[in-house]
């Protein structure tokens, strides 16, 4: 596999392979010196045209733990501000001899275009509302750790599905692995057409809560909204926010996930965000090991992982 643009590049077997490989990198991350020389001599560049905290730090940590060199590209302090085109920027970075580019862009399909302009591997770190494959992989790894399997499990994804690349990649991943997915949102926050989505839809969070093994809350993507889709955030929270009373309706074993950044008080209250069943920080921790697995699979397969990267 050369690129990771969507989960379809992996398929169900590829997703399972990444999850198994992630176990190895969790173990590496727990070593006293959490570093292996697997990608020594390889260079990974970041092209982030959209804001990020978790994904960027996570990829950067992953690359460093694999001993790769990293090239940091920040749109706000680069020639992009002088009007350089995406293609020229990609070709310039490519000419510096990078092995992989991790790309985030507000336009759906940008990583796909970039893959046509470079010999480097391209990893999609989020493109518009289209896909965010590594988020889905870390979500799957976190769910597998908590629920053991996906077969017969019921996962509800709640909130702004319409603008969410996380929802699109998660639906693909969870259903690929055998889970049932219900989307819970007001009509205005659902995509206009759900043909081909292997999901159920509900507008009533309270009736769904007792039936789930996991509840996945999404952030309201205000930066992608061009019109008022809900009467007010207060009204949204009243219908779809997870507070303590609602969390009490979940089965005892059910976990709560959120991709971050959380809007405490909108989709989740502060109290629920801090409950042990809310595994948001596990998602963050797992994100590093998952991204190590992805980088290793694309750039370093076959390199021995038993030796330490300490120098
Ligand atoms: N961090 C995730 C993303 O980049 C989710 C979000 O921003 O709401 O898509």
What's the topology here?
Blueprint: H1 11-29, E1 43-48, H2 54-65, E2 69-74, H3 86-95, E3 100-105, H4 110-115, E4 121-127, H5 133-147, E5 154-158, H6 165-176, E6 180-184, E7 200-202, H7 205-208, E8 214-217, H8 233-240, H9 244-247, E9 255-257, H10 270-273, H11 280-300
Parallel strand pairs: 1-2, 1-3, 3-4, 5-6, 5-8, 6-7, 8-9
Helix pairs in contact: 1-5, 1-11, 2-11, 5-6, 5-11
The structure holds aspartic acid (ASP).
Aspartic acid binds at residues 126, 132, 165-166, 219, 221, 259-260.
- Report the uncertain regions: none
What is Rg? 19 Å
In total, the number of domains comes to 2
Distance between the termini: 30 Å
Quick one: CATH class of the largest domain? Alpha Beta
What would you say about this model in short?
The chain is α/β, with parallel strands linked by helices. The chain is built from eleven helices and nine strands.
Describe this structure in words.
- It is a single chain.
- By secondary structure, this protein is α/β, with parallel strands linked by helices.
- It has helices at 11-29, 54-65, 86-95, 110-115, 133-147, 165-176, 205-208, 233-240, 244-247, 270-273, 280-300; strands at 43-48, 69-74, 100-105, 121-127, 154-158, 180-184, 200-202, 214-217, 255-257.
- It folds into 2 domains: 7-132 and 284-299, 3-Layer(aba) Sandwich (Rossmann fold); 133-282, Aspartate/ornithine carbamoyltransferase (Rossmann fold), CATH 3.40.50.
- The strands form 2 sheets. Strands 7-6-5-8-9 form a 5-stranded parallel beta sheet, with helices on one face. A 4-stranded parallel beta sheet has the order 2-1-3-4.
- It is globular and about 55 Å long.
- The chain contains 11 helices and 9 strands.
